[in-house]
Amino acid sequence: MEAAIRARGLTKRFGARSAVEDVTFDVPVGEVFGFLGPNGAGKTTTVRVLSTLVRPTAGTAEVAGIPVSEESGAEIRNQISVMTETPGLYLRLTVFDNLEYFAGLYGIPPRDARERILAALDAVGMAGRLGDRAGALSKGLRQRVALARALLPDPRVLFLDEPTSGLDPVATREVRELIDGLRDRGVTVFLTTHRLEEAERLCDRIAILNTTLRIVGTPADLRRTLFSPALEVSTVAPITDPGELFASVRGVDGWDSTGSASYRVSVHQPMAVAPDLARAIVASGVGLVHLSEATHSLEDVYLQLVRDDVEAAR
Ligand SMILES: Nc1ncnc2c1ncn2[C@@H]1O[C@H](COP(=O)(O)OP(=O)(O)OP(=O)(O)O)[C@@H](O)[C@H]1O
Ligand SMILES: [Mg+2]
Fold it and tell me: What share of the chain is helix, strand, coil (3-state, %, to 5)?
């Protein structure tokens, strides 16, 4: 597996406080990798270390195959692009002039610059605003220009720090489609976000960070790791003796009541047990309203992992 990003024991401390502690993960080339965690978890710090803006206190990292070090900063920055939490535009310059300035910094030949700038602005739905002063744009429009700026150098690895924060639903959808398009072109995307449904929809794999790395995997892996399979049942009226009824069905490991006439039934193989369970409920004389495999959202996974940490810190 060719890794676009490799982190080994990455640690960043500010004085006595650990922002990031002993973080190890790989991001294969072409993956959209989600980086989630509560405020102050160390997400932006990790992005800053990987994009060579700050030096780690300990540990090593490789980005685009290049070891992160003081000497390799310029070489890495040639392969990557970063959209930070703050758009970092020159507010007195027009949208076009901002991007022309950055195109120069990125070493894009002047004869190609105009076409590349127009393509980048088009990709974020801002082609019609190139003559506007950046300072006169709304927050979300500035954010979109910042994203266009990050796309300009045609990076191999793109770091996006909360790219849809502050965007309206239509712009959010456009940015998500843009990220999908980058994946199709083989660009590796490192995405930090607080929007769990966004991570779930966009990311091949997800890491949850809270100073230390709590878990890494596909959304399905994460759900499987934290939650055992179950069936959700609801009935017209309460089952008279649910313990006896559920125990009579092969493959049922246990049950909980989740409401006056609803139950969560633990099973190893939901699809194998569901028909027998349905028959047993109907045979007991109580009407069956609903029977389905229990599903967990990424939000359930996140809250399960992070809530205890947050409560412990209070
Ligand atoms: N330059 C700095 N000096 C001192 N402390 C810092 C510095 N940068 C970050 N920190 C601290 O490191 C921790 C991690 O911050 P970081 O910005 O990486 O969090 P984050 O996960 O991006 O949070 P958010 O979701 O709020 O953006 C925080 O406690 C923060 O206050
Ligand atoms: Mg941050």
Answer: 40, 30, 30
**Which residue's CA lies nearest to atom 9 of ligand 1?**
45
Over the chain (314 residues), what is each successive 10-residue block's mean pLDDT?
Answer: 92 96 97 95 96 95 95 91 86 96 92 94 89 91 90 93 87 86 90 92 95 94 87 96 96 94 95 96 95 89 82 71
Query: Residue 7 carries which side chain, given as an amino acid letter?
Result: A
Distance 164 CA to ligand 2 centre (A): 13
Q: Where in the chain is the domain with CATH 3.40.50.300?
A: 3-218
The model carries a pTM of 0.86
Query: For the domain bounded by 3-218, which CATH number is listed?
Result: 3.40.50.300
33 Cα: distance to centroid of ligand 1 (angstroms)? 20
Instruction: Kindly give the distance from the C-alpha atom of residue 192 to the centroid of ligand 2, in angstroms, as a whole number.
Output: 8
Under a CB-based contact definition with an 8 Å cutoff, are residues 1 and 62 in contact? Answer: no
Which CATH architecture fits 228-293? 2-Layer Sandwich (3.30)
